[in-house]
Specification:
single chain, 422 residues, alpha+beta, BirA Bifunctional Protein, domain 2, Rossmann fold, 2 domains, eight-stranded mixed sheet, five-stranded mixed sheet, elongated
């Protein structure tokens, strides 16, 4: 019986890796322009880290984490808590008052696998620690907007404010009263959430629950003066940056540490309305985890969904040449010379390959074509004797003879490749 990948875990095959690399290249380029530094984090953390930061009563901690109970360690379900732990552990605030950090890597949640959502999934996580400015909130959303624009992906920005510990309790009481009048019409998950995190009831995706909360009170109408001023500043700043947005009063976060600004980039191109980027402000999280009282804001972007969007919008990379030159060696002497030549070409910065199994020239030409090689160099006894070899352009069929030495071949291919790229 064949062994297959676990349900919710997916191989990224070579034909898709080019799309992933393009996404990562654009991400790194944009983040460098915004003066972000990369941090690389471990996959395993102490379970307590996520219970304290995410909240022991959340679905993630209660149902979805991959935890080794005997060791009390967990495979990270998200990156923010891990990044905060590293920030505190290494006293990064002492080195620079405002830290701009990002990380890219796999996360793990035991959810029902669906389109663009796997049990092992990959995220870009972007965080700024040390500033409470509303302009920073807008700047991060502008960054997200630029990422989508440069990838050629269409996504709409939605924003909301979750208030703060000063203004949220009064709203919570009013929301609980509203939910209590409709509790019998809500799903079992929402009935449970109403006792632990009633804001999550507003975020239920089931049609019946959405209808029941359509007239729910809005947190925006219950903000304290400081939170209202902050949200107004965010909106004004987005308009200054010409970043289009809409206010979604039902947007909440599934994690307990968010306050004030929250936002999502959403799309309807993956079937139902789906978030491809979500984030917000978490000014009390670092202190909650034992660090200094330092504000923070960030977002996470799901790479699987981003790749699906690129495929659906025909923004996948074109069929680029995978190698610069394929060396076709004929006979033992030709193959032996070609073997050393390929190694030299690689050391000189070219992508080179050859057949190592002594196949016919016809078979090797097919192999070169499938590999997407730009050029094929043919070396047999005749070429070795004359110290010259034909180099064929696979796109045009044109053929030139070159001196059979590393410098001549490498120089010609680089010059021609540079012209083709231009």
């Amino acid at each position: 019986m064949k062994i297959k990948a676990l349900n919710g875990f997916k191989d990224i095959l070579p034909e898709d890796v080019g799309i992933w690399r393009r996404v990562e290249d654009v991400v790194r380029d944009v983040l460098e322009r915004f003066h972000f530094a990369e941090i690389r984090l471990p996959i395993l953390e102490k379970t307590e880290l996520f219970a304290r930061s995410i909240g022991a009563d959340t679905d993630i901690v209660e149902k979805e984490m991959y935890t080794f109970t005997d060791k009390q360690v967990t495979m990270r379900p998200e990156a923010t808590a891990s990044l905060m732990r590293a920030y505190i552990e290494h006293s990064m605030h002492a080195a620079r008052p405002v830290q701009r950090l990002f990380t890219i890597g796999p996360m793990f949640r035991h959810e029902r696998p669906q389109k663009g959502r796997l049990r092992q999934f990959h995220q870009l996580d972007v965080e700024v620690l040390g500033s409470s400015s509303y302009r920073l909130d807008a700047e991060l959303m502008s960054l997200g907007s630029l990422l989508f624009a440069e990838l050629g992906v269409s996504a709409s920005l939605e924003i909301n404010s979750l208030g703060c510990p000063d203004c949220r309790p009064a709203y919570r009481r009013q929301l609980l009263e509203f939910i209590g009048d409709r509790i019998g019409q809500l799903c079992s998950d929402c009935r449970r959430r109403s006792l632990t995190n009633p804001l999550r009831v507003l975020d239920c995706k089931k049609d019946g629950c959405r209808q029941q909360v359509a007239q729910a009170p809005s947190l925006i109408d219950h903000l304290c003066p400081a939170c209202a001023d902050h949200f107004s500043g965010v909106r004004d700043s987005l308009e200054r940056l010409s970043v289009p947005y809409s206010v979604n009063k039902f947007m909440v976060r599934g994690l307990d540490y968010y306050v004030r600004t929250t936002f999502e980039f959403v799309t309807d191109r993956l079937g139902s309305q789906a978030a491809v980027c979500a984030g917000g402000r978490y000014d009390g999280l670092i202190e909650m985890l034992g660090g200094p009282k330092i504000p923070g804001i960030g977002f996470a972007m799901g790479l699987e969904r981003l790749v699906l969007l690129l495929k659906s919008s025909d923004q996948t990379p074109g069929q680029a040449a995978e190698i610069d030159v394929f060396v076709a060696g004929l006979g033992e002497r030709g193959s032996g010379y070609g073997f050393a030549l390929v190694d030299g070409l690689r050391r000189d910065g070219l992508r080179a390959d050859m057949d190592l199994d002594g196949k016919s020239l016809k078979s090797q030409m097919k192999q070169a074509d499938k590999a997407g090689s730009r050029f094929v160099l043919i070396i047999g006894d005749q070429e070795l004797a004359g110290r010259r070899a034909p180099l064929r352009d696979m796109a045009t069929g044109e053929q030139v003879e070159l001196a059979l030495d590393l410098e001549s071949i490498s120089t010609y291919i680089k010059e021609r490749s540079s012209g083709l790229d231009g």
